[in-house]
Design goal:
This protein is of the alpha/beta class. Helix content is 25%, strand content 25%.
Length: 354
């Protein structure tokens, strides 16, 4: 059996088993189904189709002169005749991230500006530049945003690029999308999104079922963005052009909270989080980290907090005793650009502020 015949048979088996709407042929040598990607390579025994990003192999089987297909929650193995092998594994909930101490963020990745207005202007500028670049290079712009203060920073943003923009929420409560008190989508529409003409926004179904919403949201991303060719996938992860992230006082990013398993999980692109009522969904840490550009914004002061988010930023950026479990934001130290006002940066030390 030659490589083209093997490739065709493998693709047809997978499409028949999983459905063409969820199984995308990336190119003549690579197939992707959600977070599973396979590549065809010639080996001494024939042609091997192996996962591009396999980190945990749960099954392995080689058979000649026969077909075998096994697909479950944990593993997948398909074998073809004459030495052609397909094998992959996936555990959508495996704890693969270690909660170890991490080095401080690079000084060059921290940008300190005068005040909250300057931070907001910088964020809008970053979005504009990223959008223009993505549209020029690929014809579309894939953006992920959180709720909270970053929504207000986006007021006044927009342009011709919004018609080519595909928007996903980093996290969102499992509530009705029209709930202006709880729904990030409703708040975004009120603040700026209604003015983003032609923007394709991926929203939740609006139920209170966290597990069902997470599964449905990942499926929507796969069908409406990945399958349509507007959101690239590399090593099993969607690659957003830009991910804007906020950091809570306790270090949470998206809905990845301290001392919970979700921040350590690798597998699904979207996770359910039942920490609160209503529950929420969140992009996983690997998905956040995989974006071409990750930007964290922190600013603002009040009478109660005259130094703003300075304590949280110190823990997020420079405290080497922190771990993913104790302060989840440290998981983005190595990839993020940190944009903050002088108040938020006041406890970082001279290396970051001078």
């Amino acid at each position: 059996m030659d490589i083209d015949t093997a490739r065709s048979q493998v693709y047809n088996i997978m499409v028949k088993r999983e459905g063409s709407h969820l199984f995308k042929k990336e190119n003549r040598n690579q197939f992707c189904h959600g977070r599973l990607c396979y590549s065809a390579q010639r080996s001494s025994t024939g042609v091997s189709f192996a996962p591009l990003f396999l980190t945990l192999r749960l099954s392995s089987l080689t058979m000649r002169g026969s077909y075998s297909l096994f697909l479950s929650f944990f593993s997948f193995t398909a074998t073809l005749s004459t030495g052609f092998v397909v094998q992959s594994s996936s555990n959508p909930g495996t704890r693969l991230f270690s909660s170890t101490k991490t080095p401080s963020a690079p000084v060059a990745n921290v940008v300190v500006l005068k005040d909250a207005d300057a931070v907001g202007a910088k964020i809008r500028s970053i979005v504009e530049e990223a959008a223009q670049k993505a549209v020029k290079e690929r014809g579309s712009f894939a953006l992920a945003i959180p709720g909270g203060s970053i929504l207000k920073m986006l007021v006044g943003s927009g342009g011709d690029w919004t018609t080519k923009t595909h928007l996903v929420y980093v996290n969102h409560k499992c509530v009705d999308m029209h709930d202006e008190d709880l729904a990030t989508h409703a708040k975004a529409k009120k603040l700026f999104l209604s003015k983003w003409k032609g923007c394709n926004t991926i929203v939740l179904d609006g139920t209170g079922n966290g597990k069902a919403e997470a599964k449905a949201y990942e499926t929507k991303i796969a069908i409406r963005l990945v399958d349509e060719g507007v959101l690239p996938v590399e090593h099993g992860l969607p690659i957003f052009d830009l991910a804007l992230i906020g950091v809570g006082d306790d270090g949470h990013i998206g809905s990845l909270y301290p001392d919970r398993d979700e921040v350590l999980m690798d597998g699904p692109w979207v996770l359910p989080v039942d920490m609160k009522d209503p529950p929420s969904i969140t992009l996983s840490l690997p998905v956040m980290k995989a974006a071409k550009q990750v930007v964290i914004a922190a600013c603002g002061v009040s009478d109660k907090y005259p130094q703003g988010k300075s304590a949280g930023m110190r823990r997020a950026i420079v405290d080497e005793e922190e771990t993913l479990s104790s302060f989840p934001a440290v998981g983005l130290r190595d990839v993020a650009t940190w944009i903050m006002d002088e108040a938020a940066a006041s406890k970082l030390g001279d290396a970051y502020t001078k």
